[in-house]
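HOLO CASE FILE
Compound: EPZ
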Amino acid sequence: MDRIVIKGGRPLKGEIPISGAKNACLPIMTATLLTDRTCTLRGVPELMDVRTMARLLAHLGVEVTPEMARAETVTFKDGNLSTVEAPYELVKTMRASVLVLGPLVARHRRARVSLPGGCAIGARPINLHLKGLAAMGATIELEEGYVVASARRLKGADFTFDQVTVTGTENLVMAAVLARGETVLRNAAREPEVADLCRVLIRMGARIEGLDTDTLTIEGVDQLEGFDYRVMPDRIETGTYLAAAAITGSRLSLTKARPETLGAVLAKFREAGVVLKTGPDRLEIDARQGGLRAVDCTTAPYPGFPTDMQAQLMAAVSLAQGTSVIKESIFENRFMHVQELARLGADIQVDGNRAVVRGVAHLSGAPVMATDLRASACLIVAGLAARGETTIRRVYHLDRGYERIVRKLSAAGAEIRREKDK
Ligand code: EPZ
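Model generated. Tokens follow.
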């Protein structure tokens, strides 16, 4: 296993380029199961989750070139599906594997997908995915830890989600595009990654209305073409580097970004005193005015403040003047980074889904442990500002969702390195 070592206290400068969005890439990759035509996806980030999804698609019989999607441009060709099963060994490493469910049932009439099991940040069931597929006429059976979904042909349905679910919305959109008749999805997720998937499906010939709203109307078609598409920039990666610039009092430009997908995050950091200027594909950050102001925040489905930015904001306000109250409303256990931040000297009290963060004068470097993808990112953000050396272990969590983060931060002036964990 590797670890990351940071010598904190240095400001960042210059530019950091943003990579393609992990959470748009993953559903778009499963959309290739909906057609036998060649699909080309550009701007693909080199991430462990992308490689895992490529491995799953190859297991199902899709020809992925280059193998393991190890390139910025990846093509997918339907190579006669050899199985419709997503095995536990793969699903347990990446819950987004459940995104093959909708496409497999829609075009191959059957899917056998391992239930994802629990995860560090919460139970994260997929009951709403299954309820929606059943509403569209699929037979759903549970056997030996697998969901078996089947339908001769799905039929359109008017379905309301009991609660907002990002991959639940994505699974049902992909099921609906080849169903017979019209599907209306209400209380659908409005995350930009859902709209990015819908844009790809429309380019394939799907008929979808209501992008970026909470009601998606899909008129089923009989078959879909391939696509050639560039994935949107990663808004959570963008927000993570914004938090890093804020906590280190830096002036930094983020390029190849799409700041309009981060409205709530930009507003929150402006409230904390960071000066932000946005261009069509860049975010100019100036946090040199010294000292962040404390801010309160509650995570919410888009366009609210994203749960995937909660840990990074908490790291930034741990040095703010005043007390911040952060509420996590999406997942039931997404405060595991609190104890690690406390090891760096942060003063945080957790009470249920609320964290009260009293700003301290400084953080001090120490050995800490990454527990999940965004918690790892928050420890890097804190380590960049902490006095002395911070060592972060189990950084494989980071590799799931941040492309070349050590190289990007080094190029922007951080004293950061990755090494074998002795
Ligand atoms: C997506 O996960 C993202 N992953 C997550 O990003 C993100 O944190 C999450 O959305 C919320 O924004 C991908 O897009 C691949 P949900 P997803 O279904 O779809 C409950 C990251 O860091 N729920 O929107 O799995 C669920 O338990 C990852 O990149 C049900 O109860 O999240 C949760 O409390 C982490 N039943 C809430 O809804 C269901 O059938 C939101 O979950 C589905 C969800």
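CASE NOTES: The chain has a mean pLDDT of 96. The first strand starts at residue 2 and ends at 7.
CLOSED: yes
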